[in-house]
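Quarterly update, task 2.4: guanosine-5'-diphosphate-bound model.
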Amino acid sequence: MANVVVIGAQWGDEGKGKITDLLSNSADMVVRYQGGVNAGHTVVVKGQTFKLHLIPSGILYPSTECIIGSGTVIDPKVLIQELDQLDALHISTENLLISSTAHVTMPYHRLIDQASEERRGDHKIGTTKRGIGPTYADKSERTGIRMIDLMEPESLRKLLHWTVTHKNAVLEKLYDLPPLDPEAVIQEYLGYAERLRPHVVDSSLRIHEAIRQRRNILFEGAQGTLLDLDHGTYPYVTSSNPVAGGACVGAGVGPTMIDRVIGVAKAYTTRVGEGPFPTEQLNEMGELLRDRGAEFGTTTGRERRCGWFDGVIGRYAVRINGLDCLAITKLDVLDELAEIQVCVAYDLDGERCHELPTGARQFAQCRPVYKTLPGWQQSTADCRSLEDLPAAALNYLKFLAELMEVPIAIVSLGASRDQTIIVEDPIHGPKRALLYDRAQPIGLRGEATHSAAIRAIEV
Ligand code: GDP
Ligand code: IMO
Ligand code: MG
């Protein structure tokens, strides 16, 4: 049995969808534990592209149970569109379960997200405008609507009447927007409730039962470490906890149930939205990375900002998430380059700085210190083992592993499942990978925990 958390180690869009889909072959259950329809996870299987916002990437395996956990926020309209799209492609969604305690994104959340971004002017966050922040804010304020509320029409009617009237005051008085018709909102959401009802369960209990049956569970993070509300580059963050610790809270499992944590990082860095980005390349190099990496947002279509790999952020992600290993994606995007830069430290007020500063102002002033490595200038798209890689590409990976003091277990060289090198089975292999022989593994438990139920990863 191995329960594994997959997280983004940068600012999101690292390729978590591809890696989760790949690892789902060894999983009996996949759980999304935070975020909402701000996420866009792309999975490419046999030339067909799936863009998932809320439904876990494990859905493409017919026998894998998929759970949208308690820590997520659910926009039922978008979720139903996603269900319809999968149905149209004959992908079964029977195994999809939705937490009864997940919070629901309402029309006023989307309107407030959009209006507050406009009001912020130069201080805007660059949100996806999907109502994520306002939904989580209501959850904290204890005025949120949960999936369980949607399941009870009579009390929902009363609850929504009060809430919509209350939010109308905010829309009208604070943002000069027209009020919503409470009855129209009630009717719309009662309709969604009936469609989603068969999927709504006590998800923490289902996960607990699966754990007791020693089934393999994958916890799929959305967004990334630097977008974490507590540990990211605040205030330019999302409103949930994408870090590995968020999996316990968002899924409703104890930390003792997690066996492994896998970080996903691109071979370079991207960011969508506002906020400091020390290694950003506002030049031809940034454009080249955007073109070769097709760096346009899955959810909003916005251009992603592009830059070099940032080892300070990488080390931070290893620390904050307790990473056991990394999956490095999009190595192929660097194929053409004669030279590649990696940020190994920052220069902050004339001092060399190896750790991410906690202050937003200090982070904005960090200047990257680069190490230049030779490129390989040949295609890696067809490489299927470390031996197939050009020497310079292998050196690049070894450099990253040493810089971050974490093994690299997976290397991805293209969007499809087969464009992958499994250096070491990250779920069932030893807690020590080949590329970096870590002297002091973070995990304290022995190998016995992971020896049962070995299922090879087939791509
Ligand atoms: P996520 O949000 O972390 O799941 O990542 P996204 O799906 O938003 O963005 C990653 C993009 O890169 C998607 O379009 C993937 O299909 C694509 N992708 C994933 N891995 C690779 C890779 O190794 N090489 C290339 N060229 N594309 C990849
Ligand atoms: P996946 O799961 C990249 C960014 C937004 C914005 C900030 C806050 O595909 O990696 P929000 O709408 O969450 O309040 O926006 O977070 N953001 C993402 N960036 N990938 C994502 O998800 C993101 N989800 C939110 O661009 O900067
Ligand atoms: Mg994405």
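Highlight for this quarter: The CA atoms of residues 290 and 306 lie 6 Å apart.
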